[in-house]
Design brief:
There is one protein chain. This protein is mostly helical. It has one domain. About 65% of the residues lie in helices and about 5% in strands. Strand 1 and strand 2 form a beta hairpin. Helix 1 packs antiparallel against helix 4.
Length: about 100
């Protein structure tokens, strides 16, 4: 069954998220995550959301849209985190309606 494997990966990515360090902006008005760091996490999260929920799911569509607009600023990266956590909660709560996943 794939659900435990996906749940494990969601947990791994949540732990990775918690290790991401936000750095002060040069302007001093906020924080950001250095390039490469947030993209690595977000790419893995996007891949997982696609695998679990499918390309047409709101989780995936919203994540892709937010990723396109993200430049690493805290408020942008936190949008990605919010979508990711929503997907994690829906999987853990049994609210996955992907037929392929449901029969595995």
């Amino acid at each position: 069954m794939m659900r435990p494997i996906f749940a494990k990966r969601f947990t791994e990515l949540k732990v990775q998220w918690e290790q991401i360090k936000f750095m002060p902006d040069m302007s001093g008005s906020g924080t950001h995550v250095p390039s490469g760091v947030w993209q690595q996490w977000a790419t893995s999260a996007q891949n997982l959301i696609l695998a679990v929920f499918g390309e047409a799911s709101p989780h995936y569509v919203n994540f892709v849209d937010a990723f396109k607009e993200c430049h690493g600023y805290d408020y942008e990266v936190n949008v990605l985190k919010g979508i990711f956590l929503s997907a994690k909660e829906d999987l853990e709560g049994g609210y996955v309606f992907n037929v392929d996943l449901a029969i595995m």
